[in-house]
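Please, structure for the following, as tokens.
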Amino acid sequence: MNRTSPFRRILWLASFLLLVSVVTLTVTNRAGAKSDRHRHNKIAPDLQESVNKHKFDRRESIDVIIQLDGPISGELNGFLNRNGVHLKQNFRHLDSLLVELPVGSLDELANFDEVAYVTPDREAQADGHVSQTTGAAARRTTTTSAGVPITLEGSGIGIAILDSGVYASHKSFSGDLGASRVIYSKDFTGENRVDDPYGHGTHVAAIAAGNKLYYNSAYAGIALDSKIINLRVLNSVGRGTSSSVLAAVDWIMANRTTYNIKVTNMSLGMASADSYVNDPVCKAVRRMVDAGIVVVAAAGNSGTDSSGRKIYGQIHCPGNEPSAITVGASNSYGTDARNDDTITTYTSRGPTRSYWTDASGIKHYDNLVKPDIVAPGNKIISAESPNNLIVQQNPSLDKALTTDPTNEMMYLSGSSMATPVAAGAAAMLLELNPKLTPNMVKALLMYTAQPLAGANQLEQGAGEINIAGAVDLGRLIRSDFSSSLSLGAPLLTGAAPTPQTTLYNYTFTWSQGLILDYAYGKGTDLITKYQKVYGPGVLLGDATRLNSTGVLIGDTTMISSGVLLGDSILTSNGTTISQGTTFVSTGVLLGDGVLLGDGVLMGDGVLIGDGVLLGDGVLLGDGVLIGDSILGDNTACMY
């Protein structure tokens, strides 16, 4: 038998250990290089800032949302099963996880190849006459494109309400035979209840879908016969987390066909820190839209500072997501005619100021024009849940119509109230033409909206919702509408209607345009010819692109040559979306650092105008000063 000398064995062992050390060093250096290049960009800026400022002890545990890019490797699985790391929830349909882990392990987590982005589990908050002033009542009965009479009440359409719960026994939700139209309820807050102790969700749900069986229809909602899916994501004091919202969306993705969920209402908001490209809630909204669900989101209620002066750039998440229909609040002053309607002072204004940070630490803002439309949201009377916290703290909000707890009504104001108006309108349009895509529904609502004089596009988008006009136009859209249509194919089954609506002896002209991303599009081609941006899996904003010199131009593979793009943000004169005075050029919006509006230059934490520093000294994200209501707190606007 051959024997190896002791010297040879020692030399072999030393060589082996040297090789192992070289391999280990190589792997370590490679990981270190990856960390230098990529780790910072994988961690949300507000989470990174909190860590940098030592707001957490590195041993302290925090909840984070991990977005995955590919299957979980054995290495990441080992990390997730380590002591001190706890996988709390797997959002299977969203490729995301909710994980509790020590702050000190964030760097290691970000180094895994399959980890795409890490965000904190941010806090979410809650941000009638409506049937008549919006034109919904005027188009309850119409005809389809084939001339068949139809009653539009959202029948059979499921509307998911992500809110503080719904008091299902309220008479506003009774069907014609008395049964509740709240067909499913689920709690995602951990409080193990599906009613509405806070009082916000019931009010919202009844605006979208409250019936007209009581009070002589005075407080009827929009889609009177639609089905309500109550997904409770805000707790008994009106607060929640982004993970509770993700869990609800994950449930929707798994159960949307069972309950025919075609519309999701999100009258809630959270800080818009991350670009919509990275934010997990925005990406979850995109999943729903790509799956054929219309998603409407509140713009927020942060349109003024603590001194009552206008501020811009306060659109909340998920209202900063381009695929959502983002809704701001208008004031109808309680009149059914629309000649006196204005934008509320408190509604959040665009552009979106969510951002991503490159490897050099430079912030790149989304700067999208939002909201898309506005709807009545001031002093709206709708259903009241019994003994709710909002009324307990603000007794004057109780309408005091009855002592029957199943039929009480209350006042609320905010973009939260405007949002379900659009949700109900979407349900009506989808009952009229089930083939409509979310982008087509969005386009119909914008094209037929009423531009309000004196308000710019960062305040009102395309204008105030006009359900009557949307139905008049929507019933002419071909019923075989699909993404297989070629660009420029005929879109209507008949002649285009006159772009005007008359409600209560007041005639107004439609906007005849669409808010896109940084600009707007106009032209009759938008309704007479099929545009590729109306299909699934794309954005209306895909109609535009930047050329090599940074000029915004139309993408003629997505829109026909008859669609013209506006090159500035306008203050409307009350006619069409393209008529009015220039408020600010899109070139300013495309830049990274300033917001311009009403003579006030806002950027990097400094406000310059009339020698007055605006705001209450609270800074959010990019340094833009905000007012009293950081996350659209209801109490800031409901009095």
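The chain has three domains: 1-39, 43-121, 125-498+595-626. Residues 9-39, 596-639 have pLDDT under 50 and may be disordered.
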